[in-house]
Amino acid sequence: MAGYFKDIWLGVSTVLIGMHITFKHWFKFKKAVTIQYPHEILEMNERTRAHLFNVADECAVCLQCARACPVDIIDMQGIRADKDEDLGLLPTGKPKRMHLIKFDIDFSKCVYCGLCVEVCDTKSLHWRAPVEPCTFTREEMYKSFATIPPDEVERLIAFDAERKVKKAEEMAAKKAAAAAAKAAKAAKAKAEAEAKPAEAGADAPKAAKSDVGEEKKETPAASDTPEKPGTPDSPDAPENTPKPEPDKS
Ligand code: SF4
Ligand code: SF4
User: Tens of pLDDT along 153-167?
Assistant: First the structure.
C-alpha cells in the first residue's frame, strides 16, 4: 500500500519539476522572446547581409559587380546616353553616361558573399536592412532594380540600334574614302614610274654619243700602260720572286 502512494507522489512531483520553468514564465508574465513572423519582423543590424539593393540613378553601369559575382546572377544592360544628354552626376562626382535599362538579381542563387557590394565604386549597390529576403515563391526571389519604364526602354533600344547603324555607315564611308585615296596614290605613282623610262629613252642617243667621245679621249697611250706587277724583268718585281740559280756543274 505504501508503495502505491509513493508511486503516485513520484509521478506528480516529476510533472511539477518538469513544468517548473513553464509555470515560472507563465505566471511572471515576462516579455515574449519570440515574434509572430512574418507579420512581425525583428530590426536587423545595419551590416546584415540580408537583401541587396541597387539605386538605379546612382549606378554607373560599369559591370564591375556582374564580373565579380561568383555565381553570375547579376543580369544587367545599359545604353550609352546621347552626347548632348545630361544624366546628372554620380556619387563619385563624375557625370553619368549610361542609362540602366536592366539590373536583375536572382536571389535564389545568391551566396551572399558581398563581393558585388565591395567592388561597387558608387556604392549604389548595397545591403539594405531591415528588409528580409524570404518569399513564398521562387519567382519572387528574382528582383529587378532598373527604374526606366518599358516604353522608354524600347525607345532607347531603337535609338541605340539606329546610332550603331549610322556609326557603321560612317565607318564604311571612311574606309571606302581611305581605300580610294590609296588607289589614287598608287595610280599616280605608277604613272610617274611609266613616264620616267620614256624620258630616259629620248635622252639616250645623245648621252651615248657623248660617252663614246669621252671614251676615245680617255683611252690612255700605250707608253702610259703600267707594267704588270710580278713580271720578272720589271724593276717593280717583288723581292720574293724566286730567281733562277746558276748551274754549278
Ligand atoms: S552577394 Fe555574391 S553571389 Fe550574391 S549577387 Fe553579390 S556577388 Fe553575387
Ligand atoms: S558595380 Fe555598382 S556602379 Fe557598377 S554596375 Fe554594379 S551597381 Fe552599378
Answer: 999 999 999 999 999
